[in-house]
C-alpha cells in the first residue's frame, strides 16, 4: 500500500534564484498524481527534493509522521527505501545487461541470495514485459525498452512511492500509449503512490487521479484531475490546450497587459468541454477496490452520455 506525502510551504532556491516557493500539496496514498508545467519551472527539482537529494530552504515533507527536511542522513537513507525512481533516460549502466541492471539495488541494499534475487528480477521484468531480454545491453534495445528496464529496477525493492521523471520523453505516441497503460496496470497491481512529471497533455488527461501545475515559481493548482481539466484558470487552460495566448511565453514571462489582450481575443464561446475518459487497468489485471470504484464511475458516466446524446 502506498503512503501519503504531505508537503507544506516548500521553498527551493539556488543562490538568489528562487525555483519555487510556498508549495503545499498532499499526494494521497495509493493514487496517481501528475505534475505539469512549462520547461524550467523546477518539476525535476521538486522530485529530487521529495526524495531528499536536494534540501529546501523552507517547508516540510512529511511521510509516515517524519519530516524529511529535518532527518539526519542515516535516517533519511532509511526513508529513501520507500521510494523507487524512474529517471528520464532510464539511467541504466551501459556495461551491464538488463538483468544485472535490475538486480543492482537488491545486491547493494539487501542480503538476499542470488536465487531470491533472480526470482524477484524475473518477476519485475515480467511485470513490465521484458521477459527474454535479460542478457541484452542497454545499447542494444529501444528507448521504450530502456524505460521499462528502468521501471523494473525502480520496482525491485517493492517501494511504496514511485517517482517518474518525464517517462514519456523521447518516445513516439504509440510507445507513450503503451507506457501509460503499463503505469495504470502497475498502480492497480502494487497500489503504490505515483507521482509523474510530464509534458504530455494526453497522458495527463488519461492517467492520473490528481494534477498539479507549476508556473512562475509557484504551484498554481493541485487537485483532482476533473478540477484542472475544467478549470478557468488562464495558465491552466493555456497549458492544457497548448495554445500561445495566455501567461506562458516562449522564453520570458509576458507582461500583464499583453496577457489581458490575448485572453480577450480568445473565443471560448464555441468551446465545449469534453469529458476525458479515465484509462483503466487492462484485461487480466486484478482491480483493487479503488480501481473498481473508478471503473463503475466511468461506466455510469458513459451511460449518461449515451442517454443524453
TrEMBL record:
Judging by the UniProt lineage, the source's domain of life is Bacteria
Q: Name one GO molecular function term.
A: ATP hydrolysis activity
Q: Where is the composition biased (Basic and acidic residues)?
A: 268-277
Pfam families the UniProt entry points to: ABC_tran
- The ABC transporter domain is annotated at 5-241
Source species: Streptomyces viridochromogenes (strain DSM 40736 / JCM 4977 / BCRC 1201 / Tue 494)
In this chain, the stretch annotated as Disordered covers 268-287
Instruction: Kindly provide the name given to this protein in its UniProt entry.
Output: D-methionine ABC transporter, ATP-binding protein
Please name the CDD domains in this protein's record: ABC_Org_Solvent_Resistant (cd03261)
The record's listing under InterPro entries reads:
AAA+_ATPase (IPR003593), ABC_transporter-like_ATP-bd (IPR003439), ABC_transporter-like_CS (IPR017871), P-loop_NTPase (IPR027417)
Which UniProt keywords are given for this protein, alphabetically ordered? Answer: ATP-binding, Nucleotide-binding, Transport
